[in-house]
Amino acid sequence: MNTTYDIVVIGAGIVGAAIARELSGHQLAVALLDARDDVGDGTSKANTAILHTGFDAKPGTLESAMVSRGYTLLSEYARHTGIPVEHTGAILVAWDDEQLDALPGLRDKAEANGYRHCEIIGAAEVYQQIPHLGDGALGGLTVPDESIICTWTVNLALATDAVNRGTTLLRGYRVETVDIGTEFTTLHTSAGPVTTRWVVNAAGLGADVIDARFGFDRFTVTPRRGELIVYDKLARALVDKIVLPVPTARGKGVLVSPTIYGNVMLGPTSEDLQDRTATATSEAGFEFLLDKGRRLMPELLDEEVTATYSGLRAAIDHGDYLIAADAPKRYLLLGGIRSTGLTAGMAIAEYTLGELRSAGLELVPGGELPDPPRMPNLGEAFTRPYQDAERIAADPAYGKIVCFCERVTAGELRDACRSTIPPADLDGLRRRTRVMNGRCQGFFCGAEVQAVVDTLSPVPVTVQPERIRQ
Ligand SMILES: Cc1cc2nc3c(=O)[nH]c(=O)nc-3n(C[C@H](O)[C@H](O)[C@H](O)COP(=O)(O)OP(=O)(O)OC[C@H]3O[C@@H](n4cnc5c(N)ncnc54)[C@H](O)[C@@H]3O)c2cc1C
C-alpha cells in the first residue's frame, strides 16, 4: 500500500469524511485515517441528529455561516444519496414571561442569520401543533425548516464517496507522534508510520492533542456530555415536530424530537467532564431528563424506554469554530466543532479547501467524478426493503427478516457486509442497517444476526463489550 500521501485527514467523523471527499475530487493522493476500527464511531454516531437551519447561531460567526451553508449542501446531498431526512419543523416553546419576551429577539437573530421563516405564535397555536405538550406553555416560535436526519448514513455516505473518489481509508491508525520535515510530515501511528505532505486535523475530541504534536498550545477540548433517552415507536404518535426550549448560554437545552427511525428522543443533557471516553449514561442524567420530560410532555414518560445513549461534544474555550491553516507546517486545524458539526460538515469541507488553497496546497480538479453512492434507507418514513414487494421478488433475501423490532432483513445485512466500507463489529452493522436497534436491543435476534454475518463477513465481526446505543 502507498504510504506517502499528498494529504492525510486525521479523523473519519462527519467533518473528516466530508473533507476527504472534497479533497479527493482533485489530483491528490488522499488518506482518511482514524484511530477507531470504523468510520463515524466518535461523536458523529451519538448526537441528536437534527439538521439545523442555524436560526439560533451567533450571527457573524463562522459557525453561523457554516451551519446555514451546510444545511443547504447536506439537504441537496441527501437527495442524491438517499440519506433519510424528514422536514418535521420545530417549535421553540416559551414556558415563562422571560422566555416569552425572548421570542422576538430570537426571531431577529434568526433573520440576522439569514433565516426568515420563523413566526411567533400564541399558546393556542402551540397546543394545536403539539397537542400532547405539557401544561403551561405561553407561546412559541416556529422554525419550519428544522429537520431530522440519519447521522450514521451521513457519515457513511461521505466516507464511501471519498473512497469511491480514490481516498485511501486507514482504520485502526491512532496518531501518536508527529515528525515535521521540510517537505514531508511523518505521522507515527499505532499501525505504523504514514508519510504525507499536508495534514488536516479533524480529530474532534482529540484535536487539541494532535495540535500540540504540531507545536501549538492554543486551546483545550472539554468533553461536554449529552445524554439522551430514546422512547419506543408507540410514542411517535405523541409528537411529529421538534420541541425546543429557549436556548441558554450553555447550549440548545433539552428537546423532545421524533427520530428518523420512528422513535421519540428526550435530551440531551450538558455536562462538562475531563474523561474524553466517558460515553456511559448516568443515573443523574436520567433523573434530570425525566424531570424535564415530565414538564415538556408528561405522557411521554408513560411510554417504554428503548435505549439510552450519550455523546461528547468537543467544546473549547473559544466562542466559535477554530479553523486555522499553518502554511510552513502544511497543516490545518479544525477545533471546537461541537454541537452543529453534523449539519455544518459539508460546508466546513468547502471552507477548508479554500483555506488550504490559500496556504499553498495546489488543488487541480481531478476530472470526472463517480456518482455519489446510493445509500440504504434507514428512515422509517420511507420504503424499507421488507415493504418492497418488487425488490423481494427479485431477491428473496429482502423478504427474510432477521431483526423483528426494526424489520431488518438478511439482504440488508449481506449488503452492509459487502459494501465499500464494511462494518468492523456488530455495532457498526447496527449503524448501517438498524439491526438490534429496537425494543429488544439484540436480546432476541443477536445470535441469529451474528450467525448470518459469520457466513458473510469479510472481516471478523464481534460484539464490543461496551456498546453506545442510539
Ligand atoms: C449530544 C450531542 C448532540 C448533538 N446534536 C447535533 C445535532 O442535532 N445537529 C448537528 O448538526 N450536530 C449535533 N452535534 C454535533 C455533532 O455531532 C458534531 O459536531 C460532529 O459529529 C463532529 O464531527 P467530527 O468529525 O468533528 O468529530 P468525530 O465524529 O468525533 O470524529 C473525530 C474522529 O477523530 C478520531 N481521532 C481522534 N483522535 C485521533 C488520533 N489521535 N488519531 C486518529 N484518529 C483520531 C476519532 O476516533 C473520531 O472518529 C451534537 C453533538 C452531541 C455530542
Automatic annotation (TrEMBL):
GO molecular function, one term: glycerol-3-phosphate dehydrogenase (quinone) activity
Class of enzymatic activity (EC top level): oxidoreductase
The BFD-like [2Fe-2S]-binding domain, residue ranges: 401-453
EC number, as in UniProt: 1.1.5.3
Alphabetized InterPro entries for the sequence: BFD-like_2Fe2S-bd_dom, BFD-like_2Fe2S-bd_dom_sf, FAD-dep_OxRdtase, FAD/NAD-bd_sf, G3P_Oxidase/Oxidoreductase
Domain named FAD dependent oxidoreductase: residues: 6-352
Pfam family for this entry, one: Fer2_BFD
Keywords on record: Oxidoreductase
Name of protein: Glycerol-3-phosphate dehydrogenase
Provenance organism: Mycolicibacterium fluoranthenivorans
